[in-house]
Design brief:
Two copies of one chain form a homodimer.
Chain A (H helix, E strand, L loop, with lengths): L7 E5 H14 L15 H11 L3 E4 L2 H9 L5 E4 L6 H10 L4 E5 L2 H10 L2 E5 L14 H10 L4 E6 L10 H22 L3 E4 L13 E2 L9 H4 L9 E11 L3 E4 L19 E5 L4 E4 L12 E4 L4 H5 L4 E6 L2 E7 L6
Helix pairs in contact in A: 4-5, 6-7
């Protein structure tokens, strides 16, 4: 590990394994649809499928769908997002090596699915102001879909407004409220599948067929405060490149190696001062000292998904030894 | 332009040309050292060299240095950053197709330059708490460098704590204060070159030999409030993928296509509500309406540098026509 270039993403294999196992114990097999957007790597998807026993995947982009199919992981792929790209969706369906399901929430996105010959889930707004039709419109969308000879597999609805609530009881109540809406929509839509949830609510979905979670695998400081049974498996190997006698030092990671929407990374035992493009300036921790130039440290990102999207590879470490390198091959769109 | 996939970065060529020309008028030839970190593309660097007449470049990473040398743009490359990677720096020097200068601010980084045989600028702290030795230590670092038979070309110092001050007079006074420190260091260091500055202070450096500016080429909403003579040349082509009867709509860009450290993108005439990984939810503008699904819009990023680093290409548009595609080939480290 001491000759890794910096900055480099490192996945701690023991922590990843524990995360996979904890999730598979609660939601085995197709009760979980791992969300590939969180790690964007077919090698890692294959690992999760093998160890966790989940072989149906969730994607946010067509690139992710295509890459999983290329890697022979197309058993059951859901684009949990709306797309207007009928041509690429059709090409993916035509290949024949992937089962392709796509979320639709409007006549326009439904037409794209129809033109491509994809199966659909009706995407329902369960409280997060983003994609999804109002619950009361779901039956109408399903009717339109069936009139176009589409296979309607059921509904999906992401309670993203709820997943970060640190009060577990409040989180559970809010999930139940959202899922009551989704069950009502499923009654109108038919098809049988109810797909919802995420890492923050993975164990609050007793009646949901499949939970769409990805962050649980690598985790980040934002999810840590929820007290979930998943550990931080991802860190950024960095080096101290400068130390000032004025009381700060600098490591070689910054805005281009860390997703910043959830704030600054952690750099224990030090205190992060601020990030620039390729620098993070930090201050002493409790003992008042700063490490010398050349010291290797680990930064823990505040938000995994946009962090991974900046990197070309994930270095998989068993203790201090890098045992595999997983290309982050599903970046872009 | 209407068949561009979304999200895609678009460079408006007329605006870029005007930006290049405005800068070259103030700082012609080697009075400017364009900072490649802002666009990470050798094709764009070549364009700027040809139109603007600047053929000495500034880099933040070894990847940028290597890529410029590969592209035949190695006439005079400055790594305006500290590096501990003696092996790669040495390999770059050995190639012989690039003049390689590197910033040093400590005995350790100076040893790396010595091991590689690179020339150096002494990096001086002029008020931004990041890299750079205190001004009073600059002469000592230069002495150490010369004792190791290094060529010391002069000093650099980035007044990053000043560049965003919207009050021009206050900005000018603060630049002068920083540059007085840097001139003092140059007296101690020798070598003749004083390298400093950025887009926000490009015309406040009468006595600085070379200004290190990159953002002026593409600009962003963060720099816009300074009233500089540079226009926003970069936007993100996006499409409306969902519209809710509840009063919002969604375009297909988000945390993985936009650097978020300076906040959310602009999406005129609408009001951005929030960004998720691959979504931006927005609300009506003044007229209360929302565009239908399928509408193409342009998002303007709040911070260009970390935005470009998420993308594979820049689409160069002359009016509505894409006339070139510039690979963003200097990503990573």
């Amino acid at each position: 590990m001491n000759d890794l270039p910096t900055p480099s993403l490192v996945v701690d294999l023991a922590t990843l394994d524990a995360n996979v196992d904890a999730m598979a114990a609660e939601r085995p097999g197709d009760r979980l649809r791992p969300h590939v957007k969180a790690f964007k790597s077919t090698a890692m998807a294959r690992y999760v499928a093998q160890r966790g026993g989940h072989d149906a995947f969730c994607c946010a982009t067509l690139r992710e769908m295509e890459g999983l199919a290329d890697a022979g992981l197309g058993h059951d792929l859901l684009l949990a997002n709306e797309t207007l790209d009928a041509e690429r969706l059709a090409a993916l369906v035509r290949r024949g090596d992937a089962r392709v399901t796509v979320a639709v929430d409007s006549p326009q996105t439904l037409e794209v699915a129809a033109a491509a010959g994809a199966e659909v889930l009706v995407d329902v707004d369960v409280g997060l102001p983003r994609c999804g039709c109002p619950p009361e419109d779901a039956g109408r969308i399903a009717e339109l879909a069936r009139a176009r000879r589409l296979t309607v597999r059921g509904v999906m609805g992401y309670e993203g407004h709820v997943v970060g609530n640190p009060d577990r009881a409040a989180r559970a109540a809010a999930v139940e409220e959202s899922m009551a809406l989704l069950r009502g929509a499923l009654d109108d839509v038919g098809g049988g599948i109810m797909s919802a949830g995420g890492t923050g609510t993975f164990d609050l979905h007793p009646r949901t067929d499949e939970v769409q979670a990805g962050s649980y695998l690598l985790m980040d400081t934002a999810y840590e405060r929820l007290g979930l049974p998943f550990g931080p498996a991802l860190s950024l190997a960095v080096r101290v490149i400068s130390r000032s006698p004025r009381g700060w030092a600098v490591v070689d990671c910054g805005l281009k190696s860390l997703g910043m929407d959830h704030g600054e990374p952690a750099l224990a035992p030090y205190n992060v001062f601020f990030c620039s493009d390729e620098h993070t300036t930090f201050l002493p921790g409790g003992d008042g000292t700063l490490p010398p130039v050349g010291t290797r440290l680990r930064a823990v990102p505040a938000h995994v998904d946009p962090t991974v999207a900046y990197h070309e590879v994930l270095h998989v470490a068993d203790g201090d030894e890098v045992v595999e390198v997983w290309p982050v091959n599903l970046r872009g769109w």
